[in-house]
TrEMBL record:
Keywords: DNA-binding, Transcription, Transcription regulation. Pfam families: HTH_IclR, IclR_C. This is Transcriptional regulator. It comes from the Bacteria. Residues 6-67 form the HTH iclR-type domain. One of its GO terms (molecular function) is DNA-binding transcription factor activity. The keyword Transcription applies. Residues 68-213 form the IclR-ED domain. It comes from Streptomyces lucensis JCM 4490. One of its GO terms (biological process) is negative regulation of DNA-templated transcription.
Amino acid sequence: MTAETSQTLDRGLRVLKLLADTDHGLTVTELSTKLGVNRTVVYRLLATLEQHALVRRDLGGRARVGLGVLRLGRQVHPLVREAALPALRSLAEDIGATAHLTLVDGTEALAVAVVEPTWTDYHVAYRAGFRHPLDRGAAGRAILAARQSPSTDPGYTLTHGELEAGASGAAAPLVGVTGVEGSVGVVMLADAVPERVGPRVVEAAREVAEALR
């Protein structure tokens, strides 16, 4: 901690991070141990966070992340989209195909940013806001592959005709970005994805991940 930072705010943010990393919540005692502060401090932090709906406590007294974080989360997509656009533009122009950033939204894949190439005679129309199941399409399948192998490089995923007849897709997951689960990919009208596209998509996914860190 430095003179310019707030110790109380720092502790409150650490509480939220600890709660976000658990599915079953934490007790005051557990939080006290993890933070290295006494229980009275933890009670005050939780009471303040509860007032803002950022934390809730169940009947057993375990603290969990509150629904108030959803209101904050609504502002995440525009920030992520802005950070990803340079890499998506470069990818779309390089490959000559529609590039997209897709994030997990519940059980679905949600396209939050789309860039179309400027020099091609035709390309696949793909819009921001498009949703599809995670187990269909390259974007969702790439995310699932990263979930299955979180400690290894999942590479890229190729699909054909799963979301649109005659269209092929390639996507690579975002790796190493805390709190963001998604993928970067391209979709094109082709029977098969050219060999160079997969590695180029992986490169773009790394660029986006770097921009979000």
